[in-house]
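Annex B. Sample input.
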Amino acid sequence: MSVKLEGNILVTGTNRGIGLELVKQLAEKTGKEAHIYACCRDPEGTRAEALRQLTSQYPGKITLIKLDVADEGSISAAVQAVSERIGSVGLNLLINNAGINTPASPASLVATRKKDMMEVYETNVVGPFILSKMFLPFLQRAAERCSTDKDNSGEMSCRRSAIINISSNISSIEKCPETFSMAQMYAYRASKAALNMLTRCQAEDFKINNILVTAIHPGWVRTEMGGEQAPISPQDSVLGVLSVISSLSNKDSGMLLDWEGNMIPW
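Annex B, continued. Sample output.
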C-alpha cells in the first residue's frame, strides 16, 4: 500500500520505537519524489544502528540529522543542515515524534520531582515549539509552492505543508478520570496536554499560510516507553498513523485524533 505523502518529510526521535517505524514505512510506501530527514540525538551511536541500516536499505531516500530537541543550539544546527538540502522547495511535513517520560511509569506524585517536570516539558513541548518556529519559513515555502500547482483549491494536507504533533490519549483532561488509575504519569500527561494547546494555537496561527497542524495519538504501543504489555505493535500503529495523516484536511487542523482517525476530547 502506498502512502499519499510526498516532498520533504522530517521526523524527530527516529532511532527507536514509533519514530524508527515511521521512517521505515515512509521509506517503503512513499514515492521516489519523497525524501525523509530522520533526526535523533546520536546518529553515529549504538542506539541508532537500526536507523543507519535503513539508510543503507533505501539509498538516497533517507538523510540522518543530528538533533536533540531539548537543546536550542542543536535545533538551530539541524535546521541549517536541512535547509542546505531542501533549498527553495521547502519542508512539506514535520512530524514532532521525539518525547520522553520520566520518572518511569506509573510516575506517581510522590515519585515525580521538579526536575522531571521541567525535563519532560522541555522535550515534549518546548522542543516541538522551537522546531516549528524555526522551520516555519520552510513550511510556508512548501505551502506557497503547492499553491502554484494545478491543484490550487486551498485545501490543507500533509502533502502540501503540515505539522503533526505526536500526542497521547492520556493528555485528555476529559478522559483523565478513566485513564488515571492505569498510568498516573504526572509529567507526561501535563506535557502532552500542553502540546495539544500548542497544536491548537499553531493551527489558528498558521492557517493563513495553509499549513495544517494536527495532534495524533499513536495508541498504546509496544515500545521501550509503552512496555511489553501494550496491545499495539509499532508496525500496526504507524500503518494507522500514516493512513490517518494521509487523509487529513482543513477540518482536522487543530484537532486531536487517534491512530484510527477517531477524535479524542480535550
